[in-house]
Amino acid sequence: MRSYAAVDLGASSGRVMVGRVGTDSLELTEAHRFVNRPVRVPEGLRWDVLSLYAGVLDGLRAAGAHSGGRLDSVGIDSWAVDYGLLDADGALLGNPVHYRDARTEGVAEKVWANVPAAELYAATGLQYAPFNTLYQLTAARDAGQLAHAERLLLIPDLLAYWLTGEQGTELTNASTTQLIDPRTGEWSYGLAARLGIDLGLFAPLRQPGDPAGTIRPEVLEETGLTGPVPVTAVGSHDTASAVAAVPATGERFAYICTGTWSLAGLELDAPVLTEESRAANFTNELGLDGTVRYLRNIMGLWLLQECVRAWGDPDLGELLRDAAAVPALRSVVDAGDAAFLAPGRMPERIAEACRASGQPVPRTPGEITRCILDSLALAHRRAIEEAQRLADQPVDVVHIVGGGTRNALLCQLTADACGLPVVAGPTEAAALGNVLVQARAHGLVGDRADLRRLLARTQPLTRYEPQGGTGRWREAQSRLTAR
Question: Is 315 an annotated catalytic residue?
């Protein structure tokens, strides 16, 4: 067996996991977990990337302790779209801007004045989201913030650069910038030129499994690792790693990667670039082995996380028990609505949305929690139904991976809403996908199907059968579409 460290960074926490992989075995252990706490400064919302890097170093030290000081490789994945800028000497030019920062308000309309939204989608296949890297770069350029920048590194590539001294741009994450052609997996140079974006800012593209350098001697000394320790490019967008770890035994499946966001969709061989797909706000992001992650972004458990924070962090188990006792589908909101994107006042905003749509207003934490979970299940249903129709690819089962697998009520509601069985697990899908891409690069795992069979044999999974019919879910959806 060999030991691989997976650095897996989410929007609210980071973790370093140690995966031990053999020809027919897979074990995952958490070495270190740390908080990812953005900071609001006078100029806006920023990531504390130095604190994140310190957490990575602490995690590698702990991972080495788990493995006798020896790691066979390190891989890094994180959330998408955000980046750091480096000067000519390779020094960081300020803390990376958080995707929830307000600087991109109104920027999309400026971009569309040069390249209409339909043409932009036909070229890149990326859904509209106000925080896409393209809009962030446009805002930064217009504010003069790129004047001293010589290099742009997406967050996982920035951390890999600090570990190794080598620069690259991993493709699955690059595909979220809205500057990649999903048909070719290459930069869309013509589009970038029309929009005044200098693609020379980006380091050369890497594929999952490519070498990404070797950990520097100074880092080895600080972490106590025995060198050499290679860094391997993985699906550095955490969703790409999570989808790689879907334990599907066939091809007719949908997936929902749950956490702060819900990413619901299909794995395809080619992008869907139709106008109907654009209007439905589906995205075509690149995955392992040239696959396309055809999915919709849904606000996800962010809604509940923000409410729990507003309520003073009550016991989550008790909150879910209270929610289970609330009548189903009493009130629902559009879990994809950008009105819920910003932090703050989430319970009040959910109540206001219910009031505005003429539904009963949830008042207690249990009622609001049930509204959120019903709304998420409803959004999962709609995304999976529309993905099947738009891609002409039917499914027989829904796989839920990520943190939401711990929420049995959400999993059951999703099965009920979709009218399909749900298989929940693994919880640490992004870390497992990260580990397995490293293991595959080193010859321990075969093709994508072999990788998934290994997951299905070794990881605990829970199956939920649909209950109660889907008619009440159609009726609930009609309340939202009638607005």
Answer: no
